[in-house]
Amino acid sequence: MTVTIELSxxxxxxxxxxxxxxxxxxxxxxxxxxxxxxxxRSAGASPPAYELPPEEWVRQFEAWTxxxxxxxxxxxxxxxxxxxxxxxxxxx
Length: 92
Hints:
By secondary structure, the chain is mostly helical. It is built from four helices and no strands. It folds into two domains: about 1-45, Orthogonal Bundle (Arc Repressor Mutant), CATH 1.10.1220; about 50-90, no CATH class.
């Protein structure tokens, strides 16, 4: 099967760079991507978060947070979570 798609210049550049980085031509690289996606769906893997309806994303996120409850994780202070504290040595 032959499929023709129009890509924006930035997507095209990214696709070419990724294919080159893996030592593949673009056709083989795209076929690998499609094969991986089909395999993941066939294996029952969840779709990526950006493809979920908002309600399902919230449900999965809340389930994930409940999974971390009771682990006695440290609570960070507001200062530790401030932008200044996180990026202090980068000058940002």
